[in-house]
Amino acid sequence: MTKGTATSVEHLSEAELISLLDVDLLPRHVAIIMDGNGRWAELRGLPRIAGHAEGIKSVREIITLSGELGIEALTIYAFSQENWKRPSAEINALMALLEQYLQSEMEALIEKGARFRAIGQIDWLPSSAREWVRRVERETAHLDRLLLNVALSYGGRSEIVDAVRRLAQDCKDGKVQPDEIDEAVMEGYLFTHGLPDPDLLIRTSGEARISNFLLWQLAYTEMYFTPTLWPDFRRREGLLALLEYQKRERRFGRVPGPIYPPSGL
Ligand code: FPP
Q1: In this predicted structure, what is the pLDDT of residue 4?
Q2: How far is the CA of 198 from the centre of ligand 1 (A)?
Q3: pLDDT above 60 for 1
Q4: Mean per-residue pLDDT, 102-121
Q5: What does pTM read for this prediction?
Q6: Would you say residue 21 has pLDDT above 50?
Q7: Residue 83 designated active-site
Q8: What is the Cα–Cα distance from 37 to 202, expressed in whole angstroms?
Q9: What is the percent of the chain with per-residue pLDDT over 90, rounded to a whole number?
């Protein structure tokens, strides 16, 4: 099958989709806003939590696919700071699901060589969920096939505020001079320090917003919005997103053609 010639790839099998991927053009880091669990459940007359439980199956498939393809990092938005405003029954059920996921999935993550890391205000989580988060972080800390960042009680603005607060304190303590501060210094204070910025952001369920996710890191990220609800976003949908990403021309603010001014001037 010739790469880049298919106008519609929707009907292709998974193996055919994989054969179309250019392995040299895969994103290094993929970020995902997993949206639409509630609607998926409501459409079936089920409680919202059934949608979150089904969404975990998608999480599992996308982690496996990412590991197989050699994607270095996956950052998934599991619970935003705004999500604390949901009814307490849903919050409790989500926290229980997170804990259950961590308990049941730790061995599978280890087998896949996936390092788990939580980003966000982890101190706000109930103590038993927090302890499982820290445990799975510890048990997978040595693995490096795939980095799985799970954003929990995460907010992009609060990440930046927290980074600025710590940077200001370091200036006050004389560890950093204000005129030394540049983007690289600032990046060092973020949860994602040391990681390449996401190349691709996927948001499911038809919404086209960033919703306070990775505000600094998404500056030049390619956005992929799909109407598919998160519980239906499985390997095939992951492959379709990657194929769409590979059609994009990433310019990072430049224009095609020679760089101006030409060297030597
Ligand atoms: C958005 O759907 C999804 C969430 C707020 C939670 C996402 C959580 C999971 C997929 C499961 C937990 C994940 C891990 C890693 C354990 P929504 O409820 O806002 O859906 P709606 O917009 O249709 O109401």
Answers
A1: 44
A2: 20
A3: no
A4: 97
A5: 0.92
A6: yes
A7: yes
A8: 15
A9: 89
Instruction: Give the number of the atom of ligand 1 that is nearest the alpha carbon of residue 42.
Output: 23
pLDDT of residue 261: 57
Ligand 1 neighbourhood includes 34 CB (under 6 angstroms): yes
Strands of 73-80's sheet in order across: 114-119, 146-154, 73-80, 29-33, 200-203, 222-225
Ligand 1 atom with the shortest distance to the CA of 229? 23
Pairwise CA distance, residues 140 & 136, whole Å = 6
Rounded to the nearest whole angstrom, what is the distance from the C-alpha of residue 211 to the centroid of ligand 1? 13
Task: Show the tokens assigned to 83.
Answer: 């999500």
Q: 2-245: which CATH architecture?
A: 3-Layer(aba) Sandwich (3.40)
Strands (DSSP E) contained in 73-203 are 73-80, 114-119, 146-154, 200-203
The pLDDT score that the predictor gives to residue 2 is 45
Residue 38 Cβ < 6 Å to ligand 1: yes
The SS3 call for residue 207 is coil
In this prediction, residue 263 carries a pLDDT of 53
Find the helix or strand (DSSP H, E) in which 39 lies. helix 37-43
* Pair 167, 185: CB distance under 8 Å: yes
Residue 22 bears catalytic tag: no
For range 127-155, the mean pLDDT: 98
Domain ranges, ordered by start, for the chain: 2-245
